[in-house]
Specification:
There is one protein chain. The chain has 95 residues and is an alpha+beta fold. It contains 1 helix and 4 strands. Strands 1-2-3-4 form a 4-stranded mixed beta sheet, covered by helices on one side. Helix 1 links the parallel strand 2 and strand 3. The mean pLDDT is 77.
């Protein structure tokens, strides 16, 4: 799979989705991230969309920095929950 390289402030952004098909907010977030001095690389995956704090479907390579909010802010999206009657096994006793 090939990617397009979009200019960022300090580092290029590798986009594995059609850049024209990515919503504006979802592209604005990695562009903002590319201004940070510890950002070494950015990638945008095909499932990219605007996220809470960090772009969901993006990968941020950093040096000397940790950004826990960039990981796991969108885990489980697109999944529906099962009702208790659909869940296998006995219902646990309430405490």
């Amino acid at each position: 799979m090939s990617y397009a390289e979009v200019p960022g402030a300090r580092v290029p952004i590798r986009v594995w989705a059609g850049p024209s098909g990515v919503e504006d907010g979802a592209m604005r977030q990695p562009r903002n991230t590319s201004t940070l001095p510890w950002t070494r690389g950015l990638a945008v995956m095909p499932d990219v969309h605007y996220g809470k704090g960090a772009t969901a479907g993006s990968v941020i390579t950093m040096e000397g920095a940790v950004c826990p909010a960039a990981v796991g802010v969108d885990i489980g999206r697109g999944r529906s929950s099962a009702s208790r009657t659909d869940a296998p096994g006995p219902r646990p006793a309430r405490a």
